[in-house]
Recover the amino acids of this structure.
């Protein structure tokens, strides 16, 4: 990209990334929301996704530490509170653990990450490294997947409640507050990127950062699809109860 884009054109480019690369298009996501996943696949999704959820406040803490403006830090730290809560048992991570609890997963196993797929661990670590090692502009731009998450959340929640009788609104409580939070957060991040990407190289870096984040989320679903639909999980990874019983019978 050699020409400087007007802010409106840059925003269009960023939104195009979501339209073409966000994981609402991934086959596993489509299976999940349409009721085609087995219970074991839903469990594997929730267990692996926990590692990503747990890394979000860590990611935001890295970004926060790099901000020199107090007003920006006050704005950004709300993201950490949203996920960690003000006290034990509150916040998005606690609500995600409610989801895994309701699916019958052992909380200690989920939190340890020991049963997650290797690709999940690699993806999460790559994201944390990205926000630490790249420019502040790129780190903030990578969070712009929140521009697209509300549309996925609405479809995912409706589909899971309609198609899985073991899932309740309480099970999916994590998603209740996320559309409002994501809108607030993405408005702030988008305004920052549009104001601070002042050269063609910086604008391309911001677009690339969002592409990276989309690729990271896509890779996590690639791993789930491969391991639990077409092949088999890594030996130390989570195995659904039906797979364990099948192996025992063999």
């Amino acid at each position: 990209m050699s020409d400087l884009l007007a802010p409106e054109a840059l925003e269009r480019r960023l939104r195009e990334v979501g339209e073409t690369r966000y994981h609402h298009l991934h086959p596993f996501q489509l299976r999940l929301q349409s009721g085609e996943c087995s219970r074991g696949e839903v469990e594997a999704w929730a267990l692996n996704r926990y590692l990503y959820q747990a890394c979000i406040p860590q990611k935001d803490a890295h970004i926060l530490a790099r901000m020199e403006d107090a007003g920006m830090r006050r704005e950004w730290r709300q993201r950490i509170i949203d996920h960690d809560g003000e006290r034990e048992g509150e916040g998005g991570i606690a609500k995600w653990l409610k989801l895994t609890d309701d699916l019958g997963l052992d909380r200690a196993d989920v939190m340890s990450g020991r049963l997650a797929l290797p690709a999940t661990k690699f993806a999460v670590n790559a994201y944390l490294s990205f926000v630490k090692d790249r420019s502040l502009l790129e780190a903030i731009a990578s969070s712009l997947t929140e521009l697209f998450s509300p549309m996925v959340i609405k479809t995912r929640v409706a589909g899971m409640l309609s198609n899985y009788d073991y899932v309740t609104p309480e099970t999916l409580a994590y998603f209740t507050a996320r559309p409002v939070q994501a809108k607030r957060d993405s408005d702030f991040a988008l305004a920052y990127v549009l104001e601070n990407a002042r050269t063609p190289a910086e604008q391309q870096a911001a677009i690339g950062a969002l592409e990276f984040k989309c690729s990271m989320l896509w890779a996590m679903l690639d791993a789930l699809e491969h391991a639990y639909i077409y092949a088999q999980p890594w030996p130390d990874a989570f195995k659904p109860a039906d797979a364990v019983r099948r192996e025992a019978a063999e």
About this structure: Confidence is low (pLDDT under 50) at residues 245-250. The radius of gyration is 19 Å. Residues 7-243 form a domain with the Heme Oxygenase; Chain A fold (CATH 1.20.910.10). Residues 171 and 181 are 19 Å apart (CA to CA).
